[in-house]
Amino acid sequence: MELHQLRYFLAVVKTGNFSRAAESCHIAQPSLSQQILKLEGELGERLFERKARSVHLTSAGEMFQERAARVLHELQEAHREVRDARGEPRGQVHLSALPTIAPYLLPKIIRGFPRRCPAVSTIVHEETTDRALRALESDEIDLALVSLPVVSARVEVRPLFREELLLVLPKGHPLLRKRRLAASDLEPEKFIFMAETHCLGAQTLQFCYAKGFTPQISCRSAQMETVQALVAAGVGISMVPAMARASSARVSYRSLGKPKPLRTIALVWKKGRHLSRAALELRSYIVAIAGRARVA
């Protein structure tokens, strides 16, 4: 049994297709198929049920998948530990961040980190919290910047800072003439929410419920810039993180009364996983940067 056979097997499991698996492994499909057949011959069991356009694991394949993944994971960890024992930190670190964090906090991190670790390359992923947690558990990424709460016992959580959520309104909106805003002022307004897969939408909804009203949602968007553009166009009002506050002649921001709506930004990583020196250095750097980026 060869290690490359295990990699090919897991690639087929991940893609559900021999052609896509071969492409991801950078080999010809006939070669990959031949190696899978050799693996099945050596094990004496079929690992896949082959159909016209897809493949599915057999019961034997399901048992073998866990073992194969564990073997490759242990090998990767061994390589990582040996590499970390030599010289300065080097290699790649995969960092995920929420789309409501990435454009505003990551530039400070990506710009400054190479001065600390010039031999380390940071690969950025923009994912929702649920997708980032799944990527951590499958070792696809090393670290993730998320908004609390995080419901998972499989990750370590390091809260970084709390951030105020601001009300954003189009210029000239009547509410801007008020010194203080009450919940009753917001209830008649139409809201623009982030898409349901984004935790910011749930946080805004929770704030409205806590104030005793159900918001009228006129539309949703997966992009913070689009939300603010829709506000500027007069489609509705919204709530955005303080770090997303833009210098714009078309919208205005207002802080809401106490208790202010807040979100907590945290850094998470997989519990029990050996982090490379490069990942540890990036984690330390993010903690330092976040301390200076505190906005609430």
Give me some keywords for this one.
296 residues, alpha/beta, Arc Repressor Mutant, subunit A, D-Maltodextrin-Binding Protein, domain 2, 11 strands
Condensed summary:
This protein has helices at 3-15, 18-25, 29-43, 59-84, 102-116, 129-137, 183-186, 199-210, 224-232, 277-292; strands at 48-50, 55-57, 91-97, 120-126, 143-147, 155-170, 190-194, 216-221, 238-241, 251-254, 262-270. 43% of the residues lie in helices and 23% in strands. Strands 3, 4, 5, 6, 9, 10 and 11 form a seven-stranded mixed sheet that branches. A two-stranded antiparallel ribbon has the order 1-2. It has a two-stranded parallel ribbon with strand order 7-8.
Commentary on this structure:
This protein is of the alpha/beta class and 296 residues long. It folds into 3 domains: 82 residues, Arc Repressor Mutant, subunit A, CATH 1.10.10; 100 residues, D-Maltodextrin-Binding Protein, domain 2 (3-Layer(aba) Sandwich), CATH 3.40.190.10; 100 residues, 3-Layer(aba) Sandwich (D-Maltodextrin-Binding Protein, domain 2), CATH 3.40.190.10. The protein is built from 10 helices and 11 strands. Strands 3, 4, 5, 6, 9, 10 and 11 form a 7-stranded mixed sheet that branches. Strands 1-2 form a two-stranded antiparallel sheet. A hairpin with a 4-residue loop joins strand 1 and strand 2. Helix 1 crosses helix 2, helix 1 packs across helix 3 and helix 5 packs across helix 10. The relative contact order is 0.15. The mean pLDDT is 90.
